Amino acid sequence: MTEEVKGNIIEEEPQASQPSQEAETIVSFVREEGEPPQDELAALREELEKAKAQAAEYLDGWQRARAELANARKRFERERGEAGQLSNGLLLRKILPVLDDLDRAIKTVPEDLRQHTWANGVSLIQRKFQNVLDAEGVKPIQVQPGDPFDPTLHEAITHEEHSDYKEGEIIAQVQTGYKFGGEVLRPALVRVAK
Fold this sequence. Notes:
The protein has three helices and eight strands.
């Protein structure tokens, strides 16, 4: 270590240390003209192109992952809705026989008892029940005598010879069928002409 005395202040010369790799890189690029040699410039350009390609690859991967996540969310929501629809359908299938029993009970009430309050109460319960089903999107399958038999909507319980109807036409409905969400919840039970 060498010391120089300048007035009253003693200055130490900095000791030469090993240059850092970064310093060597900077020094190697600084030349008399100020431009790096051509082979080093080509290497830097190649490295830049690799970095750009890698950045593009990362961006593409990120965009794909984002799209996959959005699709997964949509699929999850759709499947959740379908599962809800299915569970509602199962519950409604179990409830429909109760509605059938209410309908039969109201149809069999004798005429002289129809004005009693209990008969009106049962009728009111049946209407409320039907209103709840309507609000949930449960619709009865409309069947008229003479309509053609459709196995996707109807279930034939009998095939009868009948002079007033052609073969394959519905003679009468025995039990109401219902649709729920565009799907047949329960087919209508019908008698069919042969």
